[in-house]
Amino acid sequence: MGYNVAPLQKLIEQFERLPGIGKKTAQRLAFFVLNLPLDQARGFADAILQAHEKIKYCAVCQNLTESDLCPVCSDGRRDKGVICVVEEPRDVIAFERTRDFDGAYHILHGAISPMEGIGVEQLRIKELLTRLDPEDIREVIMATNPTVEGEATAMYLSKLIKPFGIKVTRLAYGIPVGSDIEYADQVTLGRALEGRNEM
């Protein structure tokens, strides 16, 4: 007969659903949460619930925000004529750490990946295309990850945007192929921005 405490097993199973978390790590996290004082455990649970209830997508760039517009889109000092297209909200955080980019963003929430069942319909591409007015937008920077999926997504978007007469550039390859933008250091990411090329 196995040792099984149903609420503990359920908690472990929930942690196992998180990306990159295996069974042993899920068990460690579950026991850590169990050892928290009750007020801290409630605070942890409340933070998850509040994030789900209060966070929504920015009406313009599709980034995560509490209000209709994210802080970047509501900042009048940003250059709205340059849009940096990224895969995930955490990529915006990586670019903002460099302090080298003062334009706008557009978050796709993924990349084209037929193997994972992610097609054009699952990405925020329509929302990007509605923003593309050649009188207002001078450049669109493709800052998808340098992976097969990221490259395919950048090429697909480039072909969609070119007919608008807007300059389309790609980040320079200062970022190692196969890595994610969120893990790039500030210098590498800054150089990749400076050395971008037209597609």
Topology of this protein?
Layout: H1 6-16, H2 23-35, H3 38-54, E1 56-57, E2 64-65, E3 79-86, H4 89-98, E4 103-107, H5 125-131, E5 139-142, H6 148-161, E6 167-170, H7 186-194, E7 197-198
Parallel strand pairs: 3-4, 3-5, 5-6
Antiparallel strand pairs: 1-2, 6-7
Summarize the structure.
By secondary structure, this protein is of the alpha/beta class. The chain contains seven helices and seven strands; from the N terminus they run αααβββαβαβαβαβ.
Written overview of the protein:
The protein is α/β, with parallel strands linked by helices. It has two domains: 6-54, Helicase, Ruva Protein, domain 3 (Orthogonal Bundle), CATH 1.10.8; 64-198, Dna Topoisomerase Vi A Subunit, Chain: A, domain 2, CATH 3.40.1360.10. Helix content is 41%, strand content 14%. It has helices at 6-16, 23-35, 38-54, 89-98, 125-131, 148-161, 186-194; strands at 56-57, 64-65, 79-86, 103-107, 139-142, 167-170, 197-198. The strands form two sheets. A five-stranded mixed sheet has the order 4-3-5-6-7. A two-stranded antiparallel ribbon has the order 1-2. Helix 4 (89-98) links the parallel strand 3 (79-86) and strand 4. Helix 4 (89-98) packs across helix 7 (186-194). The longest helix is centred in the N-terminal third of the chain and has 17 residues, at 38-54. The chain is elongated, with a radius of gyration of 20 Å. The model has no long low-confidence stretch (mean pLDDT 91).
Helices and strands: which structural class? alpha/beta
CATH class descriptor name of the largest domain: Alpha Beta
Order of neighbouring strands in the sheet with most strands: 4-3-5-6-7
Overall outline: elongated
Low-confidence stretches: none
DSSP summary: helix tally: 7
Beta-strand percentage?
5-15%
Rounded to the nearest angstrom, the distance between the terminal CA atoms is 62 Å
The number of domains is 2
